[in-house]
Amino acid sequence: MKNLVYIFAAVIFTTGGLLALGCVESGIPGTARMIQLPPTSQGLLEVTERITPRSQKFKVAVLTFVDQTGKGNLVVDPIADMLTTELFAGGRFELYDRGDLVQEVVDSSSATQVVTDGNDNDTVKKTVTTSTSTARQNKTAGQKAKVQTMVDGILLGYITSFEINEPPAAPEEKDRGKKGKKDKGEAPATVSGPVTGSLHCDFRIVNSWLTQQKVGQGLSELVVYSGSAKIGFTTDSERTSVLLSREDIQAIAAQIKDKFTDFSKSTIGITAIDGRVITLDVGKQDLVKQGFTGYIVEKDEHTHVLKYLAEFTIINVFDTACTAYVVSADKFLPNLRIGSQAVIK
Prior knowledge:
Elements: H1 2-26, E1 58-62, E2 66-67, H2 76-89, E3 93-95, E4 109-116, E5 123-130, H3 132-147, E6 153-165, H4 171-179, E7 196-207, E8 223-235, E9 242-244, H5 246-258, E10 268-274, E11 277-280, E12 293-299, E13 306-317, E14 322-326, E15 341-344
Parallel strand pairs: 1-3, 1-6, 2-6
Antiparallel strand pairs: 4-5, 6-7, 7-8, 8-9, 10-11, 10-15, 11-14, 12-13, 12-15, 13-14
Helix pairs in contact: 2-5
């Protein structure tokens, strides 16, 4: 009984002390103010704005190759089409459909200009022709402008040289060469028969987002990847069409895929925030590269579905960390929180 009295007295003393503390905190006799504690995790704060992700994987647009030799007009589009197919087959990338790009001007084009000679009634029409090479370069530039806001990276390719293996001359052609003269009325020899050869090309993938943003860090044309390769080909007998080596293009696609690490199983966190620049806890040792893109996310506890809060592009990479520039609109900046989860595409 005596112990029960002591316990009861202790409860009364403790309760009274808390009430007294409450009175002191509130400043109003007989009332107590509840003290609001900060959340144990910043992830508990309410997110009101979310983005719609454009792609789950790094999305690439392969543009029509630029022929710098004047000999590759037949292959500039087929190379891009085949490379798009093989990159998609590798499973690492999402690809922009080139069917939406082939509507651009393909061959040499002409435009009519009206030039006045000073008299209102007289005009002289002049036709200006653009070369095939220039037209194709303009085509590629037009494609780049078209896809810039729809992809993460743009693959630019350039044909830099050709090697052609001419077949040995037929016996009758050798005889003509020995005679030095053609018989009267004899038709000139025509070049026919298939030929084989190879073309050399250089290519690079540039980050698309930073070409649209004024990041103030000289990164507007950030190259994510660059490489070169040789592609074999065979012509038909009339030499009017070219068959490209799919094996060589598959090797290019594999080469590119190998440089884009798959981060789908990585856990990445935000460790610092400075305006639009965030710091992530992955770096060179994790095979992160400048120009990679990703999202700041949170996972629904019940459905385990990711909610996308903002999008970023990596701009600087260090041994164990990297910095990224948030490219999403201003209204998504309040979603940036230290400790939030990030994913790299």
